[in-house]
Amino acid sequence: MKNIEIEGLNFEILLSSNNILKRVNVLAAQIIKQYQSEWPLFLIVLNGASVFASALLKRIEESVPTALVKVSSYSGTESTNNILVDYFPYELVRGRNILLIEDIVDTGLTLNFLKKELKKNGANNIECVTLLFKPSKYNYSTSPQYVGFDIGEEFVVGYGMDYNQKGRNLPHVYKKTIHQN
Ligand code: IMP
């Protein structure tokens, strides 16, 4: 597992695909236990969560409802305060319990924007499973219910996460090496 470079930034391995897979299995087991009597709508937050959601949902060997939502808030390696809604399944959420599937929760702006938007459109209970969580950057009181890994403040790529739309395909999660320009 070698370090990689994307557009002049260096990244080193943080979580191997094996580690991630083991954790995904644990999360799937928790979710099955919690929800199997009544499945929520699994709402996959694009683009980043596509890889994680694919692994997680395949571990739930039952037919469950899924849908996609697409918002964007990141530019380069920084979160911005503007959320753009590119796609929102307004017609599916009324009266439903929702489990949002996120790749990473950083400041929490995206997650809490989505919760508000879902509530506004009639959703019932809204929870979240995220592969990665940056607790020290999170600005809200309610944390995601299911977390794969707590990480520090480092910028990460791989396993669905990108730097300027590159690196989503990488099988491991990499963090930006600290000492560089
Ligand atoms: P938040 O709104 O600040 O919580 O950021 C959430 C979104 O920003 C995530 O869904 C990701 O798409 C993106 N993001 C946050 N941190 C990172 C990171 O370290 N690498 C890549 N994308 C990130």
Mean pLDDT: 94
Small-molecule components bound:
inosinic acid
SS field, number of helical segments: 4
Strand order of the largest sheet: 5-4-3-6-7-8
Helical amount: 10-25%
- Rg, rounded, reads 16 Å
Strand tally is: 10
Distance between the termini: 23 Å
Structural class: alpha/beta
In the predicted model, the low-confidence regions spanning at least 5 consecutive residues are none
Order of helices and strands: EEHEHEEHEHEEEE
Measured by DSSP, the beta-strand proportion falls in 25-35%
Gross morphology is globular
**Major sheet:** 6 strands, mixed
Detail the topology: elements first, then pairings.
Elements: E1 4-6, E2 9-15, H1 17-35, E3 41-46, H2 50-58, E4 66-75, E5 78-87, H3 90-93, E6 98-105, H4 109-120, E7 126-133, E8 146-150, E9 156-157, E10 173-176
Parallel strand pairs: 3-4, 3-6, 6-7, 7-8
Antiparallel strand pairs: 1-2, 2-10, 4-5, 9-10
The site of inosinic acid (IMP) has 17 residues, from β4, β6 and α4.
Describe this structure as you would to a colleague:
Helix content is 24%, strand content 35%. The protein has 181 residues and is α/β, with parallel strands linked by helices. The longest helix is centred in the N-terminal third of the chain and has 19 residues, at 17-35. The model has no long low-confidence stretch (mean pLDDT 94). It binds inosinic acid. Residues 48, 73-74, 79, 102-111, 155-156, 161 line the site of inosinic acid (IMP).
